[in-house]
Write a structure and sequence with these properties.
Blueprint: H1 2-9, H2 14-38, H3 40-45, H4 51-62, H5 71-91, H6 104-117, H7 123-128, H8 131-138, H9 140-157, H10 165-192, H11 197-220, H12 230-236, E1 251-252, H13 263-266, E2 275-280, H14 282-294, E3 299-305, H15 320-333, E4 341-345, H16 353-365, E5 370-373, H17 383-393, H18 407-420, E6 424-426, H19 428-433, H20 457-464, H21 468-477
Parallel strand pairs: 1-3, 2-3, 2-4, 4-5, 5-6
Helix pairs in contact: 2-4, 4-6, 5-6, 9-10, 12-17, 14-20
């Protein structure tokens, strides 16, 4: 596409071509900003939403940056560019919508760094000119191509938990070694060899057609499942599981705004049943199916958002939709006395313990009855993948070797803290792993989780039994704490 675009632009004058490139880039950026809210997967992988990033490089290549002839401006631009590249490493999280506007700082920073360096020396340029750094730059594309296959294949092959530091070091060294080899013996020869444009287009067309044919075959056969036994294929099929936790209504995704939340569906009170509110992030949402089916004698309401911890003090990088939803529940809905029991659940980590303690103390003082659902068992890879690999290789405890080990300590710490705060606690971790070996399947051998920690509908129903004694006591005997 881009060679054709450049050939087409050759018919325009230099200034007109720059305007055309800039216009296409802005249109592509707009597609990216809008698309990341409604179709983040397609926006990340498909060309229309990423074209602007490459065209930004084209604009830099065509530009005449006389303004950077001034040494002060040049140095400042290079420093700001470097900062824009480095800052996202520390500021972005897994909840940051990407690409969209989040891709603008690193791309714009790279453009500023290159443009400034094209007009003279800079301190940043001098730092990047050190020979080891230059060498990493030379092999960077090969390193980019190699690192992910190395990581994926290593995760597939390792018989022990793959988060061990030694395996991370091995992956880095192997990726560097393969990158140097392919750069020296594949990339470099192709760079110096002359190809006719017609040959380039012909070979590119053949490659695209072949890749499309292979992709169509994989899609049409749903991943060539016949290469596995029926039992393995059945379990692996849950890797494509689609959860039904009222997403976009009562469970806000990262691209949903608070306005998408539907209180007339999610927060409807009953005059005949106890009103229970399930509140938190995706690790609260995945409980809804099981609890709603298990406890038909309660009216289960829901208020959840991706990455949203059900505490008063939200983290600085929390999504706006999360902050607004939590504020609405804590400051408007709960003070109105509209719930009999509040169940809070989240993908807890050690940093949540103290904010949760403060929240529980405040809720208890205001007379809100609270039940805390603790952390669930987690795996360093999706559970169906681990189960399928173990079954295929005849290693029954393969998934058990990949259990995230810090959850047991966190569970014990959270239970102690909630008891001290005068609040009831459900230990999902102990319910699943109390026998020493964590339960991995619900009814009919269906995996409890479809990824590393989120429950399938059958898994949610299985875990709902952990709430029997405590939630039953709440409903029968009244408040958990004195008002």
């Amino acid at each position: 596409m881009f060679p054709l675009l450049m050939i087409g632009l050759a018919r325009f004058g230099p200034r007109a071509a720059t305007w055309v490139i800039g216009g296409i880039a802005l249109a592509s950026l707009a597609v990216s900003v809008i698309g990341v809210k409604y179709a983040p997967g397609a926006t990340f992988y498909l060309l229309p939403a990423r074209t602007w990033e490459i065209l930004l490089g084209a604009l830099v290549a065509r530009g005449n940056f006389n303004v950077f002839d001034n040494a002060g401006i040049r140095q400042a631009a290079a420093a700001v560019g470097a900062a824009l590249i480095v800052a996202p490493i520390f500021l972005y999280t897994e909840a940051t919508p990407f690409p969209g506007l989040a891709a603008l700082p690193p791309c714009l920073g790279t453009a500023m760094l290159i443009a400034a360096g094209s007009r003279g020396s800079t301190a940043v340029g001098a730092a990047l000119s050190v020979r080891p750094v230059v060498f990493v730059g030379l092999i960077s594309y090969s390193l980019y191509l190699w690192h992910w296959p190395v990581i994926v294949l290593m995760q597939e092959a390792l018989p022990a938990p793959n988060l061990a530091r030694i395996w991370k070091i091995a992956a880095i060294l192997l990726s560097f070694g393969l990158a140097v080899f392919s750069w020296r013996y594949i990339e470099q020869p192709f760079r110096v060899r002359k190809f006719e444009p017609r040959t380039i287009f012909r070979l590119s067309g053949i490659g695209i057609a072949a890749a499309t044919a292979v992709g169509a075959l994989v899609v049409a056969t749903q991943g060539l499942p016949t290469r596995f036994s029926p039992d393995v294929a059945k379990i692996a099929g849950y890797l494509g599981y689609v959860s039904h936790n009222r997403e976009g209504q009562c469970f806000l995704n990262s691209y949903d705004k608070f306005a998408a939340f539907q209180p007339d569906v999610c927060l409807v009170r009953s005059s005949e049943k106890p009103n229970v509110l399930l509140m938190g992030d995706s690790h609260a949402a995945h409980l809804w199916t099981g609890l709603n089916a298990r406890f038909s004698n309660i009216n289960l309401m829901q208020a959840d958002a991706v990455g949203c911890k059900p505490v008063f003090s939200q983290r600085p990088r929390a999504l706006a939709s999360c902050t607004e939803l939590m504020n609405h529940i804590f400051k408007t809905f709960l003070p109105a006395g509209k719930v009999d029991v509040l169940i809070i659940s989240a993908n807890w980590d050690a940093g949540d313990v103290e904010p949760l303690r403060e929240t529980l103390v405040a809720l208890r003082a205001s007379g809100v009855r609270v039940l805390v659902s603790g952390p669930t068992v987690g795996y360093d890879l999706p559970l169906p993948q681990l189960m399928a690999i173990g079954l295929e290789r005849g290693i029954p405890d393969f998934a058990d070797r990949h259990v995230v080990t810090d959850r047991a300590d966190l569970d014990a710490r959270m239970e102690k803290m909630t008891r001290e705060a005068g609040t009831e606690y459900v230990s999902i971790y102990r319910y699943l792993c109390g026998s020493g070996e964590c339960a991995k399947t619900a009814r009919d051998g269906i995996p409890i989780a479809f990824d590393s920690s989120h429950f399938t509908a059958e898994g949610s129903a299985y875990v709902a039994h952990a709430f029997d004694q405590i939630l039953g006591k709440i409903i029968v005997s009244g408040p958990l704490v004195a008002n």
